[in-house]
Design a protein that fits this description.
Blueprint lengths: L1 H9 L7 E6 L5 E8 L2 E6 L4 H12 L3 E5 L5 H17 L7 E3 L6 H7 L8 E5 L2 H10 L12 E5 L5 H13 L8 E7 L3 H14 L3 E4 L1 H6 L4 E2 L13 E7 L2 H11 L4 E5 L3 H10 L4 E4 L19 E2 L7 E2 L6 E8 L7
Parallel strand pairs: 3-4, 3-6, 4-5, 7-8, 7-12, 8-11, 9-10, 9-11, 12-13
Antiparallel strand pairs: 1-2, 2-16, 14-15
Length: 339
């Protein structure tokens, strides 16, 4: 956590950046400038390290933050928060810039979702599906969140076998409980025997339960037949759904049908096929020949993140300091009036 704070501190100041600048024919000089959002409410579960990450990210982005952690880690969050307050005090910054809700009463979450009488400008939930769903359903202020991480790895017919084996196992099994863990593997039917069998053997050896379609079960009899619900499930566990597809177009259709627009990867030596895949999908993160477990703010060089945005507006992908700013327009004139 301390290293994470140092990494965030070392990032360039995101506030005051000139995002764009242009001049109009009438001489007006217009600049788009990054500004703080204001007061951010962050509601999270279990992991007390979010107290440090979220507090530091919001402070770096120029916003105040109100943190509401899970009841499971109340004492840890309080201790971390006390350390942050000590740091604020030593730096001559307002101690109230990072606040921690002092109660585990669920009513406090409801008060934050209502906006605390206009005090909160943005809510960011970080936790399980039920928490995020509640926040999205009840919030009366803008919400920055993702609901699910149904991530896919597509093994194209021109995939290097050794690379495919390494990436698939890492994408699924490195940490099964993170939102960037692969939940569905799509394999071109043309290489189902040559590539699919060793990949499935690797997953099974690593302790992963395999749920496959008819073609997968035929070449790997220990697989459990997959149901329609399996393609829509974020397991967050050592379970994976595997399907044979007839080429790139069918892989894209499957992801568009069942995915959550989080993170998708293609493994292939065919550059044209890779670029088609990257351009065709509207997920927040798309990768070529890399594990979906790279869907992480620290891996993107952002120091840390407080979630992966999968919505269409504002921030998409890892939400770091730059994504926790908004912007305004600064217009400089020389006496212009509008006719």
């Amino acid at each position: 956590m301390a290293k994470g704070l140092e990494d965030i501190a070392a990032l360039p100041d995101p506030v005051g950046r000139e995002l764009a600048r242009w001049q109009r024919p009438n001489g007006l000089d217009i600049a788009r400038i990054a500004t703080p959002i204001g007061v951010i409410g962050i509601i999270y579960e279990s992991r007390p390290n979010v107290t440090a990450d979220a507090g530091a990210l919001c402070l770096k982005s120029g916003s105040a933050v109100i943190l509401r952690g899970g009841s499971e880690s109340t004492r840890s969050s309080a201790a971390i928060h006390a350390a942050l307050v000590d740091g604020l005090r030593e730096a001559g910054l307002p101690e109230t810039a990072i606040q921690l809700v002092p109660t585990t009463d669920r009513a406090a979450v409801g008060d934050m979702l209502q906006g605390l009488d206009g005090a909160i400008d943005l809510i960011v939930p970080r936790g399980g599906k039920s928490l995020v769903a509640r926040v999205q359903a009840e919030a009366r202020v803008p919400v920055l969140a993702h609901l699910e991480g149904i991530c896919h790895v597509y093994v194209h017919e021109r995939a290097d076998l050794a690379m495919a084996r390494a990436i698939v196992v890492n994408a699924k099994m490195r940490r099964t409980g993170v939102c960037g863990a692969a939940e569905t593997i799509l394999i071109d039917r043309a290489i189902l025997t040559s590539h699919g069998v060793p990949i499935l053997e690797d997953l099974a050896k690593a302790g992963c339960e395999i749920r496959g379609d008819d073609a997968v079960c035929a070449i790997f009899p220990t697989a459990t037949p997959a149901t329609e619900e399996d393609w829509r499930t974020e397991y967050l566990d050592a379970i994976v759904a595997v399907r044979a597809v007839d080429g790139l177009d069918e892989a894209v259709r499957h992801i568009e049908t069942y995915g959550s627009q989080h993170t998708e990867a293609i493994i292939t030596a065919d550059g044209r096929a890779a670029e088609r895949f990257l351009a065709a999908l509207d997920s927040a993160i798309v990768l070529w020949n890399a594990s979906t477990q790279f869907a992480d703010g620290s891996e993107f060089g952002m120091g840390a993140e407080i979630g992966i945005g999968t919505g269409k507006l504002h921030a998409r992908g890892p939400v770091g300091v730059e994504q926790l700013t908004t912007f305004r327009y600064v217009v400089r004139g020389t006496g212009q009036t509008r006719p």
